[in-house]
Design brief:
The protein has 225 residues and is mainly alpha-helical. The protein has one domain: Rhomboid-like (Rhomboid-like fold), CATH 1.20.1540.10. It is built from 11 helices and 2 strands; from the N terminus they run ααααααααββααα. The chain starts with a helix and ends with a helix. 23% of the residues are buried.
Length: 225
């Protein structure tokens, strides 16, 4: 990740400490405001409807929509929203502690830019892929850390990541080309940060496999006395 090292030396001061705390706080605030507007004020239009990504509305001058989608909480019950927001705050905090503020900020910003590009292709953008990329990165760095699934079952993060990768793969296979581009671009941050690791692992695997085959071939050719 030499390019990241260079970027950090040049732009490191632009890192945002506790970035996920701000993101999660804004998500929670939007949810609370919507609860008040929709349920307590005669069915007023929700704040979320003014923040969601919409290409036609962006072209009509509502330019804030190109990035305001990151402020939207997941559509779920209050309990699951609290769990989701806490989970992604936890993942973001782990990454920031491991990388530092600048690298984590860069990772998140690239995720935003990738999602915007995907939204311009498909007309739809959500912060769900950005949040997923946080978990995938955390699972890559801390594969043996355990999470309590349903608050009961301890499961290593790498196994949960395998499931997410399988879901992404199936979505990629069965989507049209617009959907495929959206998936790839939406996890652009993960690919940029960890692509070299995967390439090196593949090279190491084939190198090890070749060495093992050569060893077996030599053993078979060696006359036994």
């Amino acid at each position: 990740m030499k390019w990241i090292d260079k970027a950090e030396r040049k732009f490191g001061r632009f890192g945002i400490p506790n970035l996920m705390l701000y993101i999660v706080g804004i998500n929670a605030l939007v949810y609370v405001i919507d609860m008040i507007l929709v349920n307590g004020s005669g069915g007023m239009q929700s704040l979320a409807s003014y923040l969601s990504f919409s290409v036609p509305d962006i072209l009509n001058g509502q330019v804030w929509r190109i990035i305001s989608f990151i402020c939207l909480p997941p559509a779920s019950s209050p309990m699951w929203i609290v769990i989701n927001l806490y989970f992604y705050y936890l993942m973001g905090s782990w990454l920031e502690n491991a990388w530092g503020s600048f690298r984590f900020t860069l990772y998140y910003v690239i995720g935003i830019l990738g999602t915007i590009l995907a939204g311009l292709v498909t007309g739809y953008a959500t912060n769900s892929y950005i949040n997923l990329s946080l978990f995938l990165a955390a699972a890559q760095l801390f594969p043996d850390s355990e999470l309590l699934v349903f608050f009961i079952l301890p499961v290593k993060m790498k196994y949960l990541a395998y499931i997410d990768w399988l879901i992404l793969l199936m979505s990629f296979i069965f989507s049209d080309w617009g959907g495929r581009i959206a998936i790839l671009v939406s996890i652009l941050n993960f690919l940029l940060f960890f692509g070299n690791d995967f390439i090196n692992r593949i090279r190491h695997y084939f190198k090890y496999r070749k060495q093992r085959q050569n060893f077996k071939r030599q053993m078979n050719q060696t006359p036994w006395r």
